[in-house]
Amino acid sequence: MVDTITEDPAVKNRVVQDPISEEKQKLCVKTAKELEISGEAMITYGVWSVIEAILVLFFGSQSFEKEMNDIFPETVTASERMTVMVITLVIVFLIIAGVFGFHYYIGRQAVREARNQKDGKLYLVGSGIMFLFCAVSFFMTLMHKDPELDLLDKSSTLLFSAAIVFISLDIIYSALRLKRFRKEMKGGNADEQ
Question: What is the CA radius of gyration of the chain?
Answer without folding.
Answer: 25
